[in-house]
Please model this.
Amino acid sequence: MTMDAAPTTGGPTRKPPTFMTAAARVFDLSAGQMLWSRRTVFLALVVGSPVVLAILLRVVEAAGVGGLRMGGSRVVSGATIFGLFIWLLYLRFIVPVLGVFYGTSLIADEVDDKTITYLFTRPISRGAVLVGKYLAYLVVTAFVVLPSVMIVYFMLVPLRGGTLVGTFPDLVKDLGLLALGLAVYGAVFAWIGAQLKHPLVIGLVFAFGWEPAVLVVPGYLRRFTVAYYLQGLVPHAIPQDSTLGMLQAVFRDSPSLFVCLAWLLVFLAGFLVLAGRAVERREYVLEQ
Model:
């Protein structure tokens, strides 16, 4: 006669959370920290600069001063001025700035603050940590940018007798374009922050050194920039008989809508995957 082994009486083991559950928990933890950080206060001031300019233009309009002219004769409408704000201030400056300062800090800030070990010792995927913080970045930056765009829209579009109704579809396109730009730049700089040392400096050089330089160089180098495809999606038509119209023609190499969207989505997915792999494989050594 044989006796079966006694069953174990240990307590039930807790399964680690799924990838999306872990990412949601990191998102919930990171969103509040990002929103009330000193970085957000500084960048809110940057985003407020177009609002100040829009208010000044509205004051000038109310004072009866002659409208802004292009080509020496045509008075520019409020909708066109709003388009210039979207193109020159938001897409060319504010969106890259937000991407650089937030995207590079997703992992780098945890390393600098020596808190990354607390995240990586938990029973969750490192990639889930990155995705959760990336989603928090998207929400926070949208929360910072959206009020600015809406105020500028209501300040500028009614200028020169313009109406809000006819331009509302362009506003929706602009908001989608800004969201896409924030997502793509965030993925690119998240990879830089996860993979390289001194990511902030490298990110600034990429956004305000490499991209502006290669956009004016003939050839295929401009196709390796985010700005090239974002500018191809700008829905506003700048008057072609103006200096700004010719400048826009130089910067925009007429890529099709499908090409722009396809490459931006490739950048978004590719760099986010690369950032996740870098976080999974890299050994982060905390300096004393």
